[in-house]
Amino acid sequence: MPANVGRPARLSLDAIVAAATRILETEGLEKLSMRRLATDLGSAPMAVYHHVRDKDDLLVHVMESQARAMPRPSFPDDPRERLIEASVLLYELLAERPWIVEVLTGRDLIGPSALWIVEAMIGAAADHGCSDDDAVYVYRTIWFYIVGDLVIRVARHGRVGENETVAALTADTHPRLAAVAGRWAELNARDTHRRGITAIVNGLLG
């Protein structure tokens, strides 16, 4: 009988990244651990550590894999339109992968392959006439809007406390809120990211 019968298949970095991605997409960042990953792979945690130093290193590999698979469309020649389209694309790519937002905001990690879209956004602002410093400011302002919007949307999912609080307001004390209280949940649920990004870009570029 061959000596390796019954032993698990040798791990590869690609297999580890694929398994980690499945956990992140289906259960979220908090469920990903090296021990859980090893269990899903039918291996021992130490075998995983032969390929990645720690969880942060693993997350960088996963984000690199995601970034390499993301589409890189051609953007409009007009700098303003290019900035809007690049920003909307960034929002939508992250909205499909909310765990990446959690990684970027909580662990200060980045996959270098994702920086092409940051380059496109800063380049569009510079082509519009912004200085290098101002172009970075434009990008960061849009980035804060994107992250803030997505973090709030994820946190709000399945929660009704705010809707109930607004619904209980009266016109005597909060006339504007009371006027829309019956539609508050629907208004909050609207997907307005393109409108918001367009308004921010127009305000920043003048």
UniProtKB/TrEMBL annotation:
UniProt KW keywords: DNA-binding, Transcription, Transcription regulation
PROSITE patterns: HTH_TETR_2
Pfam families: TetR_C_1, TetR_N
DNA-binding annotation, residue ranges on this chain: 33-52
Record has Transcription regulation as a keyword: yes
InterPro entries linked to this entry: Homeodomain-like_sf, HTH-type_TetR-like_transc_reg, HTH_TetR, Repressor_TetR_C, Tet_transcr_reg_TetR-rel_C_sf
Lineage top rank: taxon: Bacteria
The UniProt record lists the keyword DNA-binding: yes
HTH tetR-type domain boundaries: 10-70
Protein name: HTH tetR-type domain-containing protein
Organism lineage: Bacteria, Bacillati, Actinomycetota, Actinomycetes, Micromonosporales
